[in-house]
Design a protein that fits this description.
- The chain is α+β, with helices and mostly antiparallel strands.
- The chain has four helices and two strands.
- A two-stranded antiparallel sheet has the order 1-2.
- The longest helix is centred in the last third of the chain and has 12 residues, at about 50-60.
Length: about 70
């Protein structure tokens, strides 16, 4: 956030980890099978009733996503 604020640049971060994104970004865009399912501030995305987002944030809170390790 500091780099973007100081230098006035946009940063694009691609991640499957919402907690990681929240440390860097103010806004997010969620894709499911290449289609945009939601966009907005991360707090609103995390509180969404959209089933894909509910699963996504629940998986993050529970640890690993299928096929990923914490190493």
């Amino acid at each position: 956030r500091q780099l973007a604020k100081e230098d006035g640049i946009a940063v694009v971060l691609v991640t499957h980890k919402p907690q990681e994104a929240s440390r860097i970004a103010q806004r997010g865009l969620a894709l499911d099978s290449g289609r945009v399912v939601a966009a907005g501030d991360l707090t609103s995305l995390a509180a969404s009733d959209e089933p894909f987002l509910r699963r996504f944030f629940a998986e993050d809170a529970g640890g690993d996503r299928e096929g990923e390790s914490n190493e």
